[in-house]
Specification:
Blueprint: H1 30-36, H2 39-42, H3 46-62, H4 68-86, H5 99-111, H6 124-160, E1 165-170, E2 173-179, H7 180-203, E3 207-208, H8 224-230, E4 235-236, H9 240-245, H10 248-274, E5 282-283, H11 302-325, H12 340-362, E6 365-366, H13 368-375, H14 382-391, H15 396-413, H16 422-428, H17 436-439, H18 442-448, H19 457-479
Parallel strand pairs: 3-4
Antiparallel strand pairs: 1-2, 5-6
Helix pairs in contact: 3-4, 3-6, 3-8, 4-5, 6-7, 6-12, 6-19, 7-10, 7-19, 10-11, 10-12, 11-12, 14-15
């Protein structure tokens, strides 16, 4: 699209050049025009604005508010405007405040005087609220599609790496062994909930504001049901004040995006840690890493670092809109112009993060041997020893105390837990009369954890199967949109 040109401050515009100018005797100050102009960002709504205006024009014709011929002329002009914007042929004038007025002016240039009837029964308030609701629905679908690709990548890795074992951590201290597939699937679970939140957020954009007017509807015989249907809404908004004043759907989308970004940030934090020399579990592909301008040996995990950093940006947008809305009386206030940039930027940021994370993780190299070596520490099986005592009928707290003494002995004597003899173990309790060589086996430990959602191979396979089924349902749903 052609760049918007700044308005010439010396060009004197009569007050009536504004859509609201009839009541004013002076033209708007150049500072006001510059300060209040939103065309540089609300241009993102042009498709939705044209679609909403076409539905409105058709309804005006059906209701006899304009003639059928006039309705057709308005629709043709709007379709021409859409083609011109798509081709980058329509120049937007920042002095006209917003994309809506620019489109309305161009319709007038094409259709002539009949263009003045397009706004019959409609306020900029319900028009903009309708545009934003339409945009939010489309944005949610786009994010869900990009999210589906990342979920697929994680599931593919889980399927390939089901036999790769690494330590699970608490407090960033090695805790118990798990399968790498189990770890990937933990993020699949989080992202599946994120998808559900995005789907639920879209439901809050299913009521059409169109026809609510400035705040009190219209005395004209508008058919709000028909415009809602044509635009794909489930229903018209049930209260005209609420329809133009509320931005719940935008808040809910920002909330869902923020939670999604928190999950991505946690995943990326682990990728950054795992790629460090101290862990050495993974290596980013050269195509998704950068180097240092000073230190030739460096290979930096910039992709996960940037995603981690951008999470704060998205969460900040949620807080920004919450603060914008918190003190607004009904119905419309110009503060609501500030609803769009946070939403537009948040959606674009999340889409970009998802689109680069999928190939970055897909091409990630795993050092399975290093992971296995870290998981081979027999101390990671201390809980198994306590569970063994519980299985012998001992209360868990007593078992925990006894195994704690075993661990303390090993640390003091600098003896690995699996190097204690059968006799040494039995000294702590007769129920510990077991074969250390067979008991302190990572594979045995994993396969003993057969609880649903656990790291045993069968449990992980079941989890992966369910995750794939959920993803298939998501994709089928998205294909219908």
């Amino acid at each position: 699209m052609a760049d918007c040109k700044e308005p010439d401050p010396s060009a004197q515009r009569p007050a009536s050049a504004k859509t609201w100018g009839g009541r004013f005797s002076k033209r708007a100050a150049s500072q006001l025009e510059s300060f209040s102009s939103s065309v540089h960002f609300d241009v993102a709504l042009w498709r939705e604005d044209v679609l909403g205006s076409i539905a409105h024009a058709r309804m005006l014709g059906r209701q006899g508010i304009v003639s059928e011929r006039e309705s057709a002329e308005l629709v043709r002009a709007l379709e021409q405007v859409a083609r011109e914007i798509e081709a980058g042929e329509m120049e937007l004038d920042p002095a006209l405040e917003d994309v809506h007025t620019n489109i309305e002016r161009r319709v007038g240039e094409i259709a002539g005087a009949v263009a003045g009837k397009l706004h019959s029964g409609r306020s900029r308030n319900d028009q903009v609220a309708t545009d934003l609701a339409l945009w939010l629905r489309g944005a949610g679908t786009r994010v869900r599609s990009a999210l589906a690709r990342l979920r697929e990548v994680l599931m593919q890795r889980a399927g390939r790496e089901i036999d790769v074992v690494l330590p699970g951590y608490t407090h960033l201290q090695r805790a118990q062994p798990v399968r790498l597939a189990h770890h990937w699937l933990a993020y699949c679970e989080m992202l599946a909930r994120d998808d559900a939140r995005l789907r639920d957020a879209a439901a809050r954009a299913e009521s059409s504001p169109l026809g609510a007017g400035a705040l009190a509807g219209s005395t004209l015989p508008l058919d709000r049901e028909s415009t809602a249907r044509e635009l794909g809404f489930a229903r018209p908004g049930r209260n005209s004040l609420d329809a133009v004043a509320s931005r719940d759907a935008a808040l809910e989308l920002l909330s869902a995006l923020s939670i999604l970004m928190i999950h991505l940030s946690r995943l990326c934090e682990e990728l950054v840690l795992w790629s460090s020399s101290e862990f050495g579990f993974v290596e980013m592909d050269d195509a998704f890493a950068t180097g240092s301008s000073l230190m030739p040996q460096k290979k930096n995990p910039d992709v996960p670092e940037l995603v981690r950093g951008k999470s704060g940006r998205v969460v900040g947008h949620l807080v920004s809109l919450l603060m914008t809305l918190k003190g607004l009386p009904l119905a419309y206030n110009r503060d609501l112009q500030e609803d769009k940039e946070p939403v537009f930027d948040a959606v674009g940021t999340v889409e970009g993060c998802l689109e680069i994370l999928a190939p970055a993780i897909e091409t990630l190299r795993i050092d399975a041997e290093r992971m296995a070596a870290a998981a081979a520490d027999p101390m990671l099986l201390a809980t198994d020893l306590a569970d063994h005592l519980v299985g012998e009928g001992m209360p868990f707290r007593e078992a925990h105390e006894i195994v704690g003494r075993v661990v303390a002995h090993c640390l003091e004597a600098r003896v690995p837990l699996d190097r204690l003899s059968r006799a040494e173990l039995s000294e702590f309790h007769p129920a510990l009369d077991l074969d250390p060589a067979s008991f302190f086996s990572v594979e045995r430990s994993l396969e003993a954890r057969r609880v649903p959602g656990g790291p045993a191979r069968a449990a992980v396979e079941d989890s992966l199967s369910r995750a794939r089924e959920e993803l298939a349902r998501t994709r089928a749903e998205l294909e219908e949109k």
